[in-house]
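Researcher: Structure prediction, please.
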Amino acid sequence: MMRSRYAGLALVLGLAGCGHGVTTSEVDRAIMPQVAGVPVLSPEGAVGYAAYSLGHRSTTVGQPANSALALAAVDYLAGDFYTNFHWFAVPGQDKVMMMLGRGEMRTALGIAPFATSQQVVNGLVAASEAYRANDPVAVAAALPPNVFTLGPDGTTRVLSNLPTLVNANTAAQAVEGFLNFGCINGGSGMGCG
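Model: Predicted structure follows.
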């Protein structure tokens, strides 16, 4: 058991190492949608929202709006970590873990393999708003079956009872800790207010 944990860690660290990481040209990146000219989540807000929601199951069980926004944050961050200089100091293994988290999240939601990050993020953010407004027509429009292959009903079932997303949760917790550590210890870098 312990050996398999070390083997998994070695794989992640190997992927994050020189020459084996993901390059920015291979990464599909989304822009966080805006409401009234303001992004739904700031980059740091996306980290915090994903970390809290995925780390506290009570915030997502039976609450598809919260789950949808948390998973939009995961998909967004997976690309943003690699393509936005803002995140240069985030450890490589955390970036790799978030990319793996994007994959596990997309598998759980039945995301079509060709779907772009922008399609996924836009759909999940719109679905979150539609769930909050209790608007099933808007939910269906936000989750088209060509992107969300489980359809609106199947996607809602998954969002209402998320499986454990180990990689996404681990990455979000690690990056949130990284951001908070710098602030707590007098840092003035990312995430410090």
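Model: The helical segments are 2-16, 43-55, 64-83, 92-109, 117-132, 136-142, 151-160, 166-184.
Researcher: Thanks, that helps.
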